[in-house]
Design goal:
Strand content: 5-15%
Strand order of the largest sheet: 4-5-6-7
Largest sheet: 4 strands, antiparallel
Order of helices and strands: HHHHEHHHEEEEEEEHEEHHHHEHHHH
Oligomer: single chain
Number of helices: 16
Shape: extended
Radius of gyration: 35 Å
């Protein structure tokens, strides 16, 4: 008698070789299928099991990056923006990232390669000061914005927040002359929704998500909608095709700021994508608890009757000048109400606030913080642990901040700096011999860093002593410690300190230390 085959066995895919073997040798084919079935059922990884009860209903798909991301991207963006607008936790998480990574702005520090350019220390210092001064003229003016609304620091905050909310953001570099301003290059920030396939054309291997690519996956052109698709005041949408790189200079016409995590990924994913559901559910839970707490603030009384309609409401709750439809049933001071037979009064007590609310919310927030790389204490801005635990949370955040600053500088600020430098050199405002002749020399001129606000300090005295010990031990430099402790520039601080000390000496506020005894003798012999 034939045994019944279990219905929960996985289906085995037969290759061409399997079918050929089964055709010529059915017994060998059965052995191959049996071996494949054993691998499916047993396998080397428990997580890949298709027979375990906890995993057999877990359906997964082996799609490429764009097939996984692009169909859901519009919904992810809309929900992410809605959370940032209306959910305190989501809004706080994004603002925490923007404030710590960008803060008041990332400041340029030119660091040219002096050996390649054959410059002395004094010449290199003067060149760097001149370039930083000229950069501030461009970057700290609202004329660098095509809309003349934001300066460079404000634009940096905007594009970084847009990348976190929407997954990516685009920056165009058009030219426009402004009276009284020497530079014509402008920054035009384009929201992610505007870059899309014209007329909702289906994605292909060479055009997906509004980005046209070559056979290697490099961007060739961007298809930009002339108005936001959600603009209710706009007319029928039209698209402009912008080439990715300039034909003559090879510089970028469009900066696509996003963080690809998979090969072949065309568009970015919002930072909140993995925590959209827990954030939304936590928001609903919080709203329900708030409403329950509000209701519990009212002392509500119910009149329970065994006989329907036995209570006479004809005069209850009415005041002089009120009609029957205006009756307001409420409790009064020292009020006595006569109840009918079979009637009794009981109150409603929702039992709020819920004592388990805070513990449950904190447990969820720890998971959200882990996904967003924000320590729990910093996510909720509440430090109740020890000094060591609080410092560890700040240090953990600082690892993320430094990584993000490097990413933002490499993929946005340095690209802007390079485009600006080309114009500054061509206008003669910056002297850079050999800049256009040799890519190596050009790279030496463009070498730079962007420094932002410093990390928080719980005990400033300990931090200063540690910095001094690192300098004295040769593990760091005064310039590096100045940048990390205060965000300052030692090259600019030093001459200012010399000037201040001289004035304090001349004013009699401080005195020179006494000379050592051996120097007073004149023969370097102790007295």
């Amino acid at each position: 008698m034939l045994k019944e085959v279990p219905s929960n066995l996985p289906k085995i895919k037969q290759s061409f070789v399997d079918k050929a073997v089964s055709f010529f040798s059915p017994s060998a084919g059965v052995k191959r299928l049996r071996a494949k079935l054993a691998l499916e059922l047993l396998g080397s990884y428990d997580g890949a099991s298709k027979s375990r009860r906890s995993l057999k209903e877990w359906s997964t798909f082996g799609n490429d990056a764009d097939s996984d991301i692009l169909p859901d991207l519009e919904t992810l963006r809309e929900r992410s923006r809605d959370l940032v607008r209306n959910n305190p936790l989501a809004s706080g998480a994004i603002k925490t990232k923007v404030t710590n990574v960008v803060g008041t702005g990332l400041r340029l520090q030119a660091r040219i390669d002096r050996d390649v350019l054959n410059l002395s220390e004094e010449q290199a210092d003067e060149w760097e000061k001149a370039v930083e001064r000229e950069w501030r003229l461009f970057w700290e003016s609202k004329n660098c914005d095509i809309a003349r609304t934001c300066n460079g620091h404000s634009l940096t905050r905007m594009v970084y927040q847009q990348q976190k909310e929407n997954g990516d953001v685009f920056i165009l570099m058009p030219s426009k002359t402004v009276t009284g301003f020497p530079y014509s290059k402008r920054l035009q920030v384009i929201e992610a929704d505007r870059v899309c396939n014209a007329d909702s054309t289906a994605d292909t291997e060479t055009l997906s998500g509004g980005i046209e690519k070559d056979e290697n996956g490099a961007p060739v052109a961007y298809h930009i909608m002339n108005s936001h698709p959600g603009n209710t005041m706009a007319t029928i949408g039209t698209w402009t095709k912008v080439q990715a790189f300039g034909a003559k200079t090879g510089l970028r016409n469009v900066i696509h700021l996003y963080n690809p995590t998979r090969p072949g990924q065309t568009r970015g994913v919002p930072d909140l994508a993995s925590v959209i559901e827990p954030l939304k559910q936590l928001g609903r839970y919080t709203e329900a608890e708030i409403m329950a707490a509000v209701i519990s603030g009212f002392f509500t009384v119910f009149i329970e009757s065994e006989v329907s309609g036995s209570f006479d409401y004809s005069n209850f709750g009415t005041e002089s000048g009120q009609s029957a439809s205006d009756k307001d049933y409420k409790l009064g001071n020292g009020m006595i109400v006569e109840l009918g037979a079979g009637e009794k009064i009981h109150d409603s007590n929702p039992g709020r606030p819920n004592q388990a609310f805070d513990t449950f919310v904190q447990a969820i927030l720890r998971q959200i913080g882990a996904s967003l790389e924000i320590p729990f204490e910093i996510l909720i801005k509440h430090f109740t642990a020890s000094y060591s635990a609080s410092r560890a949370a700040l240090l953990e955040l600082w690892k993320y901040v430094m990584s993000e600053r490097r990413w933002l500088a490499d993929n946005f600020l340095k690209l802007i700096y390079e485009i600006w430098m080309h114009e500054a050199v061509s206008l003669g405002r910056i002297s850079a011999p050999g800049f256009y002749a040799d890519p190596g020399i050009r790279a030496a001129y463009l070498s730079c860093e962007f420094v932002g606000p410093t990390k928080g300090q719980i005990d400033e005295l300990k931090e200063v002593k540690a910095a001094q010990a690192r300098v004295d031990g040769g593990f760091s430099t005064i310039a590096q410690e100045t940048a990390e402790l205060t965000g300052g520039d030692w090259e600019r601080n030093h001459p200012q300190q010399v000037k201040e000390r001289k004035k304090r000496l001349d004013g009699g506020l401080i005195e020179l230390p006494p000379e050592p005894a051996e120097e007073r003798n004149g023969n370097n012999q102790p007295e």
